Task: structure prediction
Amino acid sequence: MNIIELFEKLKIDKGSILLLSTEEIRRVEKQVNVEKRLNPEIASNTSENLILALKEYKEELLFVLSNRILFNFFTHNNFSRNHFSNYDLAVSDEKIKHFIAFFLADDLISFFSLKLSKGWFHYLEELDFLLDLKRYFPEEVIYKMRSLVFSKLDFAISQLTVLERKEFSNIAYIKHRTFYNLLSHFTTVESDQKISNLLSLVIKFYIKKTNTVFFTSVIQSMAFYRAINENINEVLAKNGAAVYKPELKQDKKTHPAFSIFIGLICAIIPFLVSRCS
Result:
């Protein structure tokens, strides 16, 4: 349990945080000690950290508590915007970054890793929204998140390299646009190359008509990746459009499979000088 979860469990009024006196904080400390005896999940360092935050980091604590994305993430809730008030806090990004590094970095990584490992659409979407706030995260946290996300991409590529069957449940996440939104937070030349590698494998399965529904979804979703190389963005968008309406009557030159094959060639060429048209 982290300090945000503990604060929520204690039912303390968020609006009172900035005005808490020394005596009121002592009362909260007594309340925490009672709760600790009743709930073995509350570690001593968590309770001590909450009291420290109430004493010395009031604005930073209130910032996290009043931010819908951060609060829901750390408490495993899904409260709507109506649950939160705007306290018009003027807290610098660096102060929030320091607060998260000191109190919440471990849970930030462990919760991120857990939700990423599930690969469910709504979890990936939640992580995408979370990464919109990465300016508040310490560099070492961002580095670990980047490594975790790239490892999911690497795993998908490795699986498609060896798989021949029609069962792709262990990489089902590559059909979700939210996965590519997530990747786009960490776009590099290296990730562009990996996306091109993934595309070449996906197209191979698509052309062989192996689980066409799944790979059609993958190709459509890959269009949400935002590459550094604009040629790749163009190729991904064209491929997504090519499979979107395969029922349209087309000749060989505009058949979806043919268009996708051309897209594959274009995806590899962007790393050369000439642009594929």
In short: The chain has two domains: 1-118, 138-276. Residues 139-162 form the longest helix (24 residues).
